[in-house]
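#lab-general

N.A. 3:47 PM
ok so I finally got the sequence cleaned up, no stray characters, all 305 residues accounted for. can someone with queue access submit it? mine expired

B.Y. 3:52 PM
send it over

N.A. 3:53 PM
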Amino acid sequence: MTGANTLGEYLRARRELVDPATVGLRVAGVRRTPGLRREEVATLAGISADYYLRLEQGRDRHPSPQVLDALARVFGLDAAAADYLLSLVRPAAGPAEPPARRPRRETVPASIRQLIAAVNLPAFVESRMFDVLAANPRATALSPSMHPGENRLRSMFLDPAERDLYPDWQKAIAGLIASFRASIGPAADDPRIAQLVGELSLASEPFRKLWARHDVRALAGGAVTMNHPEVGPLELWREKLPIGDSGGQLLVLYHAEPGSDSAAALDRLADGLADSAASARSSGVSGSGSAVSPPGAGSRAPRTR
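B.Y. 4:20 PM
back already:
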């Protein structure tokens, strides 16, 4: 996980996932290794086998955009994955940045904090590492892992209660890792990212397998199916909106089709929050009713039911 040969690791992972039949190759017998052979990739991309070998081994780290476009075509990459491939060689064009002595604590713009406090939807802000930086009570009612100090990737793989929220957990984690790849880009060797990936690789076999695929997916919203322990099945839409000049932060909101059962279920969650707040006030207990919690609150232990 040093990231010393990120380009080569990505090329090898994608090569091994290509079915030879999809690129018009006839395969006789059973191959000992999956996917395409290096010389097949080279032929299909119009480059020499020796040059492609140097790319995979990290002995040449400056392929031209034309070569990368050809490889993206051979591997069947979509626009997001092709952009990611290009990003793996862009840092070499400029001077190396000095290592940061100490990571700065990320802050959420005050206007965004006001927005998620006011919006009547589950909403939170995540960093490019998928750390939850701020959240409103509706988000934490939807999932306690949507809480400042939590990491969405860690929660999805290590928290059994979070796993139970998603009927199709395998699909959910595959999409999450692919989006994480797109979010971090070529910075996989950042010490904080390497630490997170190392932790999850040791603790979760599903994470190890999916991480090794090097899948990339655009950071976009989509349909989400959840099975909430209090209000039952939910069919929601998740929107991911970039926050300008924030270093890659995203505003994440969940909403349901108006008038649907899922919209009514979200309202019931909100009603439960209101009832809890009223009960706390009547008993004279000062609850944690702040709409937006501060970042850096610290991670909680995984939940169990």
